[in-house]
Amino acid sequence: MNITATTVARPGLDVLVSGVSRIVARGLGGRETAFAVAGLMREHLPGLDILTPEERAGSPERYVSHILHAERDFSVVGVVWRPGQDTVVHDHVSWCTFGIISGIEHETLYQDMGDHLVEIGRTDNRPGEVSGFAPPGDIHTVRNTSSEIGVSLHVYGADVSRLGSSVRRVYDLPVR
């Protein structure tokens, strides 16, 4: 994953960061935190101008993550997906909340059966939609199925600037 960190004006980021800080300070469990942050993000999902035009261009090679804010307990990351770009099957180090700003993020969910994965669901996340999850049970892959560049905002319950990624494990097990 290509991760960049920048310090530029980010319309809507301050409101989101202060709200997430208040939620995290409550000391809720991972799932409860993800859902509370999702409620906040539904009310305050920033627009495309949260990223610069250069950041929104993405990369022809793969999706790109831009760290917009990081501290010990959470990070805010803008993800840019050109049409057709996707992730490997993976899970996460922490809870996550994401909001779709543009494009369609097609998500396929899996369950680990030890020697193989079983597909347990699919969903198309569209602009304005927000969702959250927490390990365990967060094994998935994501693909931009729209014909436009996709932009999504992710809040992770970890300092991804220190970790380098929100991914805990990549799965190369067969799907049955």
UniProtKB/TrEMBL annotation:
Molecular-function GO terms, alphabetical: dioxygenase activity
Q: Name one Pfam family in it.
A: CDO_I
Query: Sorted alphabetically, which keywords does the UniProt record give?
Result: Dioxygenase, Iron, Metal-binding, Oxidoreductase
Q: What InterPro entries has UniProt attached to this entry?
A: CDO_1, RmlC-like_jellyroll, RmlC_Cupin_sf
State the superkingdom: Bacteria
Q: Which family does it belong to?
A: Belongs to the cysteine dioxygenase family.
- How is this protein named in the record? Cysteine dioxygenase family protein
